[in-house]
C-alpha cells in the first residue's frame, strides 16, 4: 500500500486545514476497518440526509448518540446479562460498537428514531443568512452624464 505525505500541503496553504484533515482520515483508514453495524446514508432532500444503522437486538437504552466537534458518534452497548443465556446457535451480533461520522459545516442532527431494529438519524444543513448568496441591486449613479451636451449651453 502506498503512503502519502501531506506535509507540503500544510506548509503551502492557509485555511484549507479541513481538506487536508479529510484526506489524512481517508488515507489512514484501515482496509480491515469494522463494518459492524451496517448502515445506509440516504439523501432525503437537497439539504437533508438520513443515516440508518441496523441495530437488531439493541433497545433504546443500549444506544447513545452524541455530536462532538462536528463528529457524530453512535455507540451501542448491550446492558442485559449474556452470561445467564445458553445459545445453541448465535447468529445475531449484539457486540458493543462505536461508529463515527464526520459532519460538514452547518450540518446538524435534527432527530433520531429507533424502529424495527433500525436506528434512523436525520441531518439537515442550515446555512446562516450571512453566508447565503444575495443579489446586489445596481442603481444609476447621480450626477452628470459624460456624453450628453446641453443644447442651450452650446448655442
Descriptive report:
This protein is an alpha+beta fold and 155 residues long. The protein folds into 2 domains: 1-33, no CATH class; 34-130, Immunoglobulin-like. Helix content is 14%, strand content 32%. It is built from 3 helices and 7 strands; from the N terminus they run ααβββββββα. Strands 1-2-7-6 form a 4-stranded antiparallel sheet, with no helix packed on it. The protein has a 3-stranded antiparallel sheet with strand order 3-4-5, with no helix packed on it. The longest helix has 12 residues, at 17-28.
Main attributes?
elongated; 155 residues; Immunoglobulin-like; 2 domains
CATH topology type of the largest domain: Immunoglobulin-like
**Percentage of residues in DSSP E strands:** 25-35%
Q: What is the N-to-C order of secondary-structure elements (H for helix, E for strand)?
A: HHEEEEEEEH
- For the terminal residues, how far apart are their CA atoms? 87 Å
- Write out the strand line-up for the largest beta sheet, numbering strands in chain order: 1-2-7-6
Task: Please give the largest β-sheet.
Answer: 4 strands, antiparallel
Task: List the domain count as a whole number.
Answer: 2
Give the overall average pLDDT.
81
| CATH class label of the largest domain | Mainly Beta
Q: In terms of per-residue confidence, which ranges show pLDDT below 50 for 5 or more consecutive residues?
A: none
The rounded Rg comes to: 28 Å
Number of strands: 7
Number of helices: 3
Tell me the structural class.
Answer: alpha+beta
The global form is elongated
Question: Which architecture of the largest domain does the CATH hierarchy give at level 2?
Answer: Sandwich
Amino acid at each position: 500500500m502506498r503512503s502519502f505525505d501531506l506535509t507540503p500541503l500544510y506548509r503551502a496553504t492557509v485555511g484549507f486545514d479541513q481538506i487536508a484533515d479529510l484526506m489524512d482520515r481517508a488515507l489512514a483508514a484501515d482496509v480491515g476497518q469494522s463494518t459492524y453495524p451496517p448502515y445506509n446514508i440516504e439523501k432525503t432532500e437537497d439539504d437533508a440526509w438520513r443515516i440508518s444503522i441496523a441495530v437488531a437486538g439493541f433497545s433504546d437504552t443500549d444506544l447513545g448518540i452524541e455530536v462532538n466537534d462536528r463528529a457524530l458518534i453512535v455507540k451501542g452497548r448491550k446492558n442485559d446479562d449474556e452470561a445467564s443465556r445458553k445459545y445453541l446457535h448465535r447468529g445475531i451480533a449484539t457486540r458493543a460498537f462505536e461508529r463515527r461520522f464526520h459532519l460538514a459545516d452547518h450540518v446538524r442532527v435534527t432527530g433520531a428514531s429507533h424502529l424495527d431494529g433500525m436506528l434512523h438519524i436525520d441531518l439537515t444543513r442550515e446555512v446562516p443568512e450571512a453566508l447565503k448568496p444575495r443579489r446586489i441591486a445596481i442603481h444609476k449613479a447621480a450626477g452628470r452624464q459624460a456624453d450628453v451636451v446641453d443644447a442651450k449651453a452650446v448655442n
